[in-house]
Design a protein that fits this description.
The protein is mainly α and 158 residues long. The chain has one domain. The chain is elongated.
Amino acid sequence: METVGLKRKNSIWIYLALGSIGVIGQAILLRHDLSDSYPYKLMGQLSDQYAQIGNLGVVIAPALSIATIFIFPSARRFLFPAVATLICPLIFLIVFEYVLWRSPDQGLGRFIPHFDVVTSASVQWLFVKLVVSLSGAGFLLGLVSGGLASLLERWLRK
């Protein structure tokens, strides 16, 4: 009987691993977009700032989103991957917005075209759309993977 309780306590690591895989993948994708892809890479001086945001966010966002799992230990475990993958891109967006808010390029300079009539404001909106779509997709995939892990856990207990 005690081994079943021990197995249930240890099963949290499965959900933690699923959530970790999801948030690390999301963070790497967002960092890649900010550092190595169009239009962020071609924004002149701002491209260095976007790369710094990517390097900062790839560390902070996964760490904080996984930490939320430990803040709510009594929550249903199958929701851990979904919540972590929902929160990670949003934390990345908060880092993005904070760094841009602290930037000296704020104000009307955000609306001056850099190339191809792309402005800092349009790039910012593009990143917001990416974060929202990635957060939604991560939440759905997290629900599916957490639900499948929960079903597998129940099946193995029988």
